[in-house]
Write a structure and sequence with these properties.
The protein has 294 residues and is mainly α. The chain has eleven helices and two strands.
Length: 294
């Protein structure tokens, strides 16, 4: 039965869940939003990071968030290699079908990652242990899981750090510029391909922390990337391509929408309502909530 308290609970949990959605979408906002790379393997890298966090937590007792920080440099290097392969194989050659072939390339990487995870860890769900996992914060009759509070705090911190990096540093401004005018960068003596490779490395490195949040929020399995591919692209496109702040707001909107619909109408309606909202935003403002008009 509907009640104001039930709605308040749904909105509160939705805001926290939406911040988590933003955290797992920030890397895609850089790769797809700023670099125009069809990175459909983004959720697969996310799940891979979760399993790396699980391995460090299970075998060495490392805190999940600390484990996410430890694997971040490795994922940065992985991003550098992945973009170089993509550039040499598809982007460098160009052609009218380069985008389609690029999508096939990243789908292939996603499939390989999924198979490797299954071979190494099996198909069972995996989870981590930490002081803040499985506990909740009670406010009156409301019960707020600590894992969502952690996701909220980390998502806000990541958004602030990425926004400051892209707006206050030379490399960050170059990343924004490469999406608009590569020739201008060349005239300034900057290699746009190296800038894009560096940016893709950052987009992948962020998944170290995001992967830790993913396995903190809920257990993971090898095929989980198939669920998050829709959510992450939904958040990035609805936000406005390349907008870090917009990604956070769009993530919250998606989280609140899913939670309210889940509470009132059941789980089967949640994805449909969320994507319906995306279509509505694009119909009114095609560049997204925070995108600039061309």
């Amino acid at each position: 039965m509907f009640s104001f308290d039930l709605l308040l609970d749904a909105v509160t949990i939705g805001v926290l869940l939406g911040c988590f959605y933003a955290a797992v979408s920030l890397g895609l906002s850089v790769a797809f939003g700023l670099l125009d790379v069809p990175h459909v393997a983004h959720p697969a890298f996310l799940v891979l990071a979760s399993y790396a966090v699980y391995f460090l937590n299970e075998h060495y007792g490392v805190d999940p968030l600390l484990a996410g920080l430890l694997i971040t440099p490795l994922f940065f290097l992985l991003g550098l290699v992945a973009y170089r392969l993509y550039y040499e194989t598809f982007e460098k050659r160009g052609g009218s079908d380069a985008g389609v072939r690029g999508i096939a390339f990243f789908f292939g990487i996603a499939f390989i990652i999924e198979v490797l995870i299954v071979l190494q860890f099996g198909v069972d769900q995996r989870s981590v242990t930490a002081n803040y996992v499985g506990k909740a914060w009670r406010i009156g009759d409301m019960r707020i899981p600590f894992r969502l509070v952690v996701a909220f705090a980390v998502a806000a911190a990541l958004t602030i750090l990425l926004t400051l990096y892209l707006s206050k540093t030379f490399m960050g401004r170059a990343i924004r510029a490469v999406a608009q005018d590569q020739e201008a960068l060349r005239l300034m003596g900057v290699n746009p391909i190296r800038i894009k490779q560096w940016a893709f490395g950052i987009a992948t490195a962020v998944l170290g922390i995001a992967g830790a949040l993913l396995i903190i929020v809920a257990p993971v399995e090898p095929t989980l990337d198939r669920i998050y591919i829709g959510r992450t692209f939904c958040v990035v496109v609805m936000a406005g391509l390349g907008s870090m702040t917009g990604t956070l707001v769009a993530g919250i909107i998606l989280g609140v929408a899913e939670t309210i619909v889940l509470t009132l109408f059941g789980a089967s309606w949640a994805p449909a309502i969320s994507f319906g909202m995306l279509l509505g935003v694009l119909a009114v403002r095609p560049q997204g909530l925070f995108g600039r008009r061309s």
